[in-house]
Design a protein that fits this description.
TIM Barrel, 13 strands
């Protein structure tokens, strides 16, 4: 059924289809009966799927990565589709429109996407208010069962106009503003679509950001898990620096990996890819490299710091591969576009076999 729908939708602008599809789902979910039917059809409820990671209890290990619900607009809908957690954002202090459109492209032959969104979002103040309202609504509508193991992560970044030497201030603003409305934080310094952002992955620059956030975090009565999202394009030496820093600042976890700037081993013709321009590549072409990074990190971390695996996860077998090399949780994104709304259910069902 979804394959037929996908063949139609893929004839239209990628970003427009995303908004159309999610707004249609949102409209349907406003009717409680329909929302409950969707939830019953797409959610796998089984105690064996529950995971305790970073001090949080996840109802299942399958999450939706940052970038899909940038503005926390579709949490009820994504919960109904059976995800164990959703990472909103990337959120920046001030609203920004992102890069010029078109900025999101499909490579169907490779089951991939190229995006250069540029941290388009409504800004942390608006998003924090929206999250607070959502949590209040859930409490009223579901009689306090607002989480039920459904976890919300906050992915935070810097505004495009903020110079790198002041980036730590942007992360601090977002951290403070979202603290009461998300369950964990992910520091994003690995998107290739904000000029100079990846330079913040260098150890000294990263230490300044993370150490500051941990100082604030540990002063709270109940600190929130703090994670770092990294690129798949780092060398082993750079990954070693990340591991060393993770222990030094006592990070609660790593997210591996973001999109890649590589265009190697694509089936799509080079000329066709080149005309799309710059951006991060995600989907099946990232699967192998992402798994390599997860394996390397897991070996270095020796189980002391958990890993959320992201990159090329479409099926239960893809998820099992990531978990087998050391991941504790998995995140999908491009897989959702190609596999459809049943992806979380299918992966969860596969994990139970």
């Amino acid at each position: 059924m979804y394959k037929i729908l996908r063949s139609i939708l893929f004839n239209f602008n990628t970003e427009a289809v995303h908004h159309f599809s999610m707004n249609s789902l949102s409209f349907a979910c406003k009717i409680k009966l329909i929302r409950n039917i969707i939830s019953s059809k797409f959610t796998v409820n089984d105690k064996q799927l529950e995971r305790d990671v970073c001090g949080l209890k996840f109802r299942n290990p399958v999450g939706l990565g940052a970038g899909f619900d940038k503005n926390a607009l579709y949490l009820t809908e994504l919960k109904a589709l059976g995800f164990g957690f959703v990472e909103i954002g990337t959120v920046t202090p001030r609203p920004q429109s992102g890069n010029d459109t078109p900025r999101l492209f499909r490579l169907p032959k490779d089951k991939a996407l190229i995006n250069r969104m540029g941290f388009n979002n409504d800004g942390v103040e608006t998003i924090a208010k929206r999250l607070a309202k959502w949590r209040e609504g859930e409490e009223l509508n579901i009689k306090g069962n607002n989480t039920d193991g459904f976890i919300i992560g906050g992915n935070i970044g810097k505004n495009k106009v903020t110079p790198n030497e002041d980036a730590w201030k942007d992360y601090e603003i977002c951290f403070n503003a979202l603290f009461d409305t998300v369950d964990y934080f992910v520091v994003n310094v690995s998107s290739p679509n904000t000029p100079g952002l990846r330079e913040l992955q260098e150890k000294d620059a990263l230490r300044k950001i993370l150490a500051n956030l941990q100082t604030i975090n540990q002063a709270k009565p109940q600190p929130k898990p703090l994670l770092l999202k990294i690129a798949p394009d780092l060398t082993n030496e750079q990954l070693d620096d990340i591991v060393s820093l993770a222990f030094e600042v006592k990070l609660d976890g790593l997210v591996a990996t973001n999109t890649t700037i590589s265009r190697n081993n694509l089936t799509t013709a080079k000329a066709e890819v080149d005309v799309l321009g710059m951006g991060g590549l995600s989907g099946k072409p990232v699967t192998e490299r992402s798994t390599e990074v997860v394996r390397y990190l897991a070996n270095q971390l020796k189980g002391q710091i958990p890993i959320m695996a992201s990159g090329g996860i479409f099926t239960g077998d893809d998820a099992k591969d990531k978990l087998a090399v050391g991941a504790s949780l998995v995140q999908v994104w491009t897989g959702f576009v190609y596999e459809g709304p049943v992806i979380a259910k299918n992966i969860c069902a596969s994990l139970l076999k």
